[in-house]
Write a structure and sequence with these properties.
By secondary structure, the protein is mostly helical. The protein has nine helices and no strands. It has a domain at 62-171. It has helices at residues 2-20, 27-61, 63-81, 88-93, 95-100, 109-112, 115-134, 141-163, 165-171. The protein is elongated and about 90 Å long.
Length: 172
């Protein structure tokens, strides 16, 4: 049994000694190795530059969302400015908040008071994200604004239908 153990240990000890040996490269092999390492380093730099450019393009492409966030920050002040023109001005500018204030929306009583304010703050960022996904490739200003106006007009139409504005207009 001892001879089997010695036979098994012998190749392992030679493997360790082979790993510890430094291989002497010829001068032209050293130059090739340095050139290969320089090429790899340059490729990695270009790849990281390209990835950072793609990240910046993605973040810049979300400009409708960022504009929506800015508008959401201004929404409470706009609500105060439009208070004298209530209820129609609020329903036109903030249709989601008007929908959230309706009693037909069945939510918990603790959330029912917060829902109009949450929708007031979340309406414009949501519209921005929706417009961004619709016009994914074209991030020019006017196509995005057209989509946002269309989405917003659908919300206004829904509010008008809910509040019965068309039936009142028809009876006049």
């Amino acid at each position: 049994m001892e001879s089997i153990g010695a036979a098994i240990e012998a190749p392992q000890s030679t493997r360790k000694s082979r790993r510890n040996k430094k291989v002497q490269l010829l001068p032209y092999e050293q130059q090739e190795m340095q050139a290969r390492n320089a090429t790899i380093a340059q490729y990695q730099k270009e790849k990281s530059r390209e990835e950072s450019k793609q990240r910046l393009y993605f973040i810049a492409g979300l400009w409708p969302f960022w504009v929506g966030c800015l508008m959401a920050a201004l929404a409470p002040e706009v609500k105060e400015i439009l208070a004298p023109f209530n209820p129609w001005a609020m329903r036109v500018i903030f249709p989601l908040a008007a929908i959230g204030a309706r009693p037909e929306i069945k939510v918990a009583s603790s959330i029912s008071g917060l829902l109009p304010m949450l929708l007031l703050l979340g309406q414009f960022p949501l519209e921005g994200l929706l417009a961004r996904t619709i016009v994914r490739g074209r991030t020019a200003f006017w196509p995005v604004m057209t989509q946002i106006a269309f989405i917003h007009s659908l919300g206004i139409l829904y509010v008008v239908l809910i509040y019965g504005g068309i039936t009142r207009l028809g009876s006049l």
